[in-house]
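Quick note —
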Amino acid sequence: MLHTDSPNSLLPQFPSWSLVCLGSSCLYSHNLGLQETQHPGFLNSTAYLLPWDVTVRLEHHPRDRYWNTDKNKINLSPVQRGRKTKGFREFSVKIFIGVEYECPRGHRFMCSAPDKILTTANNGIVKENGNKVSNSDMPLYFPCPCSSASMMAQLMRIHVVTPKAPVHVTLNPMVQPDENGGPIFVTGFDTPIELTQSTYWILRLP
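Predicted structure written out below.
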C-alpha cells in the first residue's frame, strides 16, 4: 500500500482501494433508507445515510440566464434563489454520506459520529446530519452492537450520493492505523478523486 512517504515512482503490489459507482442517485431514498436486497446485513435502524448540507459560493454573472456548461464556473439564472454576498451568490446543496462498519459476523451499521452509531426515530426519520462525520477523524474500529461480547467492527466502506447540481464533489481518503503516529496510507492519486453529479458511489477501504 502507498503512504505519504512512499517514493513517487513506487506502484502498489495489489489493489487496496476500490471505488464503485452503483448508478443514479435515485437508487437511494432517504425516506426508505438502504434496501435489504441491495445492501444486505445492516442492523435495524442503521441502514440510512446522513444528509449533509454544503454551502457553495458562486460567482454571479447578470448577463447569463442559465447554468454555464463549464462546470468550473456555475452561473445562476434569475429564477434561482440564493443568499447574495459581495459579488457572489451562495446556495446550499445536499450530499448524502455514510460511514459503514462491518464485524466478522457480517453485521453492518453506520456511524453518525466518531463515538456514536446512527439510529433513527420510531417513524424512520434520521434526525442527525453529516457534519460530525465530515469534520472528524473516524475510528478504524468500533464495538459492534450485535453481541454482548467484545466484537469489534472495522471501518469498511464510505457511501456518497452526489447532488444533481453541477458542482464538484471529491474524495481524498487517508488511513492512519496508529493514532499516535505512523504512516498515512493514501490512494496514490496526485489530486482528489472527482465524483460525477447525481450518482451513488461506494469507496471500499483497505
